[in-house]
Amino acid sequence: MNTDRKKIIDIIPPAGAARVLVTSGFVGSIGTGMFLTGSALYYTRVIHLSPLQVGLGLSLAGLIGMFTSVLLGRLADRTGPRVILVGLHIFRIFAYIGMALVANFWQFLIAVVLVTSADRSGPPANQALVGRIFEKTERLRTMAYLRAFRNVGLGLGALLAGLAVESDASWAYRLLVFGNAISFIPMAFLVARLKRFERPVPAAQDPVDEPSKPAAARARPLREIPFLSVSLANGFLMLHDSILFVALPLWIVGYTEAPPFMVAVVLIINTMFTAFGQVWWTRMAESLSDATRALTTCGTVLALASAAIGVAHYGNALTASVLIVVGVLLLTAGENLHAAAAWQISYDLSPAGQQTQYLAVFNLGTNVHDTAGPMVITALGVSAGPPGWLGLAAIFLLASTAERYSVGWTSRTRAAAALSGRLHVSEATR
Q1: Higher model confidence: residue 338 or residue 418?
Q2: Which spans are transmembrane here (predicted)?
Q3: Which tens digits make up the pLDDT trace of 91-125?
Q4: pLDDT of residue 189
Q5: Which range is least confidently modeled, 45-49, 56-60, 336-340?
Q6: Where are the alpha helices (DSSP H) in 349-363?
Q7: Residues 71-98: pLDDT tens digits?
Q8: Would you state the pLDDT for residue 430?
Q9: What are 262-280's pLDDT values in tens digits?
């Protein structure tokens, strides 16, 4: 079999649990893409909310969703992530139907808290399910397939939402929300089918048997400061997401000579390269040490991307367009490598028996980014001009260094606690 053939096959997930998971994620991302594309217009043009009311509701829902994800993570460690994920999908069917029927601010507030709490709880449960079914490199590759197909699904959903936006009719916007609700029906069915692939529930490791994880096995993740610092630093690295969807469109149209159609070009480049390349990037993060080293590369590449995009401000139409394309290629490489490294780090630092709640706490950094990231990116990547992009470059370098240090800090703290536990056990048996 030649190399080209292998690359083509590598795009498609293998038969079995991986393909079921990817199919579920792909279907769900179409609904999510429809909803996210039209949600702001639905809130303001159909429910007639002010931008302030929308911002207040989304911020409050985001804060509540953070705590909900951790609580459901603890429950998932007891019942299994598959059971929780099926329940979340069924819950979201009704929650989004409710969102499609709201008529005022208070109804919106209740609905957005419910859907956001469920949405924030889904990713850690889904990642934990992947960890429950697959081991080592296979779980990393499966996460990569999920992300690649999710990007394609989001793009398809956005195209469908464009029809509703073009019509600008209330019924069309509500149909987008109903469509998202319907997408969770096959997701619940597909995830429920994965029961036969699950491995037994892992027990928390004994301090004597595994020195790297005992402190975490006895403690709660919200009390483990080194692990929280990993999550926070990872949240800063997630700013690449806001650059793509928030800062770049505003920057291209308002601050460069590049033609407006470059907004669509950069999204196409990002989507295509992620769809075809995300699995490949996992090869650079197949162990905790590899993933930690990859953070340095990731931070450097993202910093170079920010610099290239910022310098585009000074070029003519052709030069600006070339610099923006170069910046987006670097940005895509950096975000794909970051995703692979973050999966490996979060898996390896999450103790057996408590994996879902640790993954939920790890995702708190991402949740903070989702809440504050657009504001930070708009202030630095748009309002501050080219110097702001250099500031973003510095943030990426500092965040990657901080996360790398925090991973080592977490490992050293747990190893020290393990040694202390062994000494206590030894003294007690004398």
Answers
A1: 338
A2: 20-42, 54-73, 93-115, 148-165, 171-192, 227-252, 258-282, 294-312, 318-337
A3: 999 999 999 999 999 999 999 999 999 999 999 99
A4: 96
A5: 56-60
A6: 355-362
A7: 999 899 888 899 999 999 999 999 999 9
A8: 52
A9: 888 888 888 888 888 888 8
Sign of CA dihedral 258, 261, 267, 273: negative
Q: Which two tokens stand for residue 126?
A: 């889904």
With b meaning 16 or more CB within 10 Å and e meaning fewer, what string describes 383-403?
Answer: eeebebbbbbbebbbebbebb
Within its chain, how far is the Cα of 259 from the centroid?
Answer: 30
- In whole angstroms, give the CA distance from residue 270 to residue 273: 5
CATH superfamily of 214-428: MFS general substrate transporter like domains (1.20.1250.20)
Q: What share of the chain is helix, strand, coil (3-state, %, to 5)?
A: 85, 0, 15
CB 111 within 8 A of CB 100: no
Reference 400, options 307, 301, 331, 308; nearest CA is 301
pLDDT of 152 higher than 80: yes
Crossing angle for the helix pair 386-428 and 225-237, to the nearest 10 degrees: 160
Query: In angstroms, rounded to a whole number, what is the distance separating the alpha carbons of residues 338 and 403?
Result: 11
Q: How many CB atoms lie within 10 A of CB 48?
A: 11
Same CATH topology for 13-197 and 214-428: the answer is yes
d(CA 405, CA 409): 6
The token duo for 329 is: 């290629």
Report pLDDT digits (tens) over 222-273: 889 999 999 999 999 999 988 887 788 889 988 999 998 888 888 888 888 8
Q: Which DSSP letter does residue 312 get?
A: G
Q: Which CATH architecture has domain 13-197?
A: Up-down Bundle (1.20)
Pick from 421, 371, 376, 370: which is nearest to 395 by CA?
376
Locate the domains of the chain by residue range: 13-197, 214-428
Dist. CA 158–CA 36, nearest whole Å: 8
